[in-house]
Specification:
Blueprint: E1 4-5, H1 6-17, E2 31-41, E3 46-56, E4 59-65, E5 76-79, E6 84-87, E7 89-94, H2 102-106, H3 109-114, E8 117-122, H4 128-139, E9 147-150, E10 155-156, E11 166-167, H5 171-184, E12 189-191, H6 198-210, E13 215-217, H7 225-231, E14 235-237, H8 250-258, H9 264-270, H10 277-289, E15 293-295, H11 298-305, H12 323-327, H13 330-335, H14 341-364, H15 385-396, H16 401-407, H17 410-415, E16 433-436, E17 450-455, E18 458-460, H18 462-480
Parallel strand pairs: 2-5, 2-6, 7-8, 8-9, 10-11, 12-13, 13-14, 14-15
Antiparallel strand pairs: 1-18, 2-3, 3-4, 6-16, 16-17, 17-18
């Protein structure tokens, strides 16, 4: 199948129609009809068999039963062979980072598309100006990659561990930083807890909300989750923090840290034993009531828990990652080398306990967002592929495939207030569509078998997606020599 450029077809039809003397254009020229489809309704978690989807430029203009195909004789028709159509997947937590890794990250952008991922939420990095430029170029169709939402730089305290963050020590500095991010037109605010003081942490959330921003954050030991929610937090990044809700004295512990009566290490040790599941569930209900979403990011913890018993040297995805990119994995590997067998087991147990929270969170009504936390600094959390790993971990944790699909489609679109255009297959929405070989409502692993993609008005069949991957692998080789 040659590349189908709908936008060009539309221009041709438009010019013919505007000219009275020209022969009349066929009524449906310029339309693309994808037919013989099993359409996955992610909102209802149901399959609609024998459907067709009509696309004009980059929008869905009609959805109809297969027998309506005869109504579109002049449209470009693509027979989907009874395969399964889902909306493009969104990875709601990635980082494009590394001052010397601009090209190494850039080559991965088309790889996201080949993996069925048409949107990413970039949770801040030391490449903010680059990421903002990519966001614009993708939007304008000058760069092939997923739609990008970015936090730009994240808020931190003075002398934090991180490079390229926005380090603030006073409310005035925080407001100046917020001005800067507003000027950069970031899509949301991200806050992390390395050295940012608790009171300023809460003030940053309030200021972000006052200015109309969504705000995502970690959880410092010096603030309770309830305090963050009350301040207006939009999402908690990493479900590991939620375990603190299983402790009756979470609030007192945070207050003790803030008062200097307890060190961070003592607080961390305190939370190691005594988790109460019923108490945690009450906390999740409170999160749901306050509309705080959660991005679990399980795959990072899984990879670390199995670092000592997994050989990654033959991982297929390494063909897209430069040696410079994977060199940044080493710091965590080194940091964990001294772990005892007992510590390794504790890590695995904790990882299991975190994963086990997902069904409880769902039942409590908490919005879950699928995010991989893929980043050069996050060891063996491979860009694009890690979202699929994450979705499989959700399945192992006990969520249904229908629930999991929501976390990677409509939930993200709603969270970003973009669901008028994205997140499901519906008339009027953008036609960012992924064709799968198998039914993802039976097994979420089906999302790995991407057969074709419609994105920005262009159809990519399997061989064209394969070409995108080959180009990325070739670019990786080129950068290494
Ligand atoms: Zn992250």
């Amino acid at each position: 199948m040659p590349l189908v450029r709908l936008s060009l077809l539309i221009v041709a039809v438009g010019s013919l129609l505007s000219c009275q003397s020209a022969p009349q254009a066929p009524e449906h020229a310029g339309l693309l009809v994808l037919h013989n489809l099993n359409l996955v309704d992610v909102e209802q978690g149901k399959l609609q068999a024998n459907q067709l989807v009509v696309v004009q430029q980059d929008r869905i203009v009609a959805i109809a039963p297969e027998q309506d195909l005869a109504k579109y004789p002049d449209a470009t028709q693509i027979d989907a062979g009874g395969q399964y159509l889902i909306p493009g997947l969104w990875d709601m937590h990635v980082h494009f980072e590394g001052r010397d890794l601009v090209e190494d990250n850039a080559l991965l952008l088309p790889v996201y598309l080949a993996y069925g991922i048409t949107g990413v939420r970039e949770a801040a990095s030391n490449l903010a100006p680059v990421v903002l430029s990519w966001r614009q170029q993708v939007e304008q169709g000058r760069l092939l990659g997923p739609k990008i939402f970015t936090a730009g730089q994240m808020f931190e305290g003075i002398d934090s561990l991180w490079d390229g963050d926005l380090e603030v020590g006073t409310e005035q500095q925080m407001r100046d930083g917020m001005d800067k991010l507003q000027h950069m037109q970031v899509d949301f605010i991200k806050i992390t807890e390395n050295t940012l003081q608790p009171d300023l942490y809460l003030a940053t959330i309030r200021e972000a909300r006052r200015r109309g921003f969504l705000v995502s954050s970690h959880v410092p030991y010096g603030t309770s989750i309830g305090e963050l929610s009350d301040a207006g937090l939009s999402s908690i990044e990493h479900a590991s923090y939620l375990l603190r809700l299983g402790f009756a004295d979470e609030g007192q512990t945070a207050a003790a840290v803030r008062a200097g009566q307890l060190t961070i290490q003592q607080a961390a040790d305190h939370y190691k034993t005594g988790f109460d599941q019923q108490l945690a569930i009450k906390g999740y209900q409170q999160l749901a009531a306050q509309h705080v979403a959660v991005t679990p990011t399980l795959i990072g913890g899984r990879q670390l828990a199995h670092l000592h018993d997994t050989d990654h040297s033959h991982d297929q995805f390494l063909q897209y990652l430069t040696k410079d990119f994977t060199a940044s994995y080493q710091w965590r590997i080194d940091r964990m080398k001294g772990e005892t067998a007992e510590q390794q087991q504790q890590r695995k147990d904790k990882e299991q306990l975190i994963a086990a929270q997902l069904p409880y969170l769902w039942q409590a009504g908490v919005t879950l967002l699928a995010g991989s936390d893929s980043a050069a600094l996050n060891t063996y959390v491979y860009p694009a592929q890690a979202l699929h790993d994450e979705l499989e971990l959700f399945q192992q944790a006990g969520l249904t495939p229908a629930q999991i699909l929501q976390t990677a489609t409509i939930n993200g679109a709603r969270f970003m207030r973009q669901d008028q255009d994205y997140g499901s297959i519906a008339v009027g929405k953008k036609a960012e569509l992924v064709l799968l070989h198998d039914n993802p409502l039976q097994n979420i692993s089906a999302t790995r078998q991407v057969q074709a993609l419609l994105y920005q008005g262009q159809w990519y069949d399997k061989s064209q997606l394969e070409q995108l991957l080959q180009k990325a692998a070739a670019r990786k080789q080129q950068l290494e020599h």
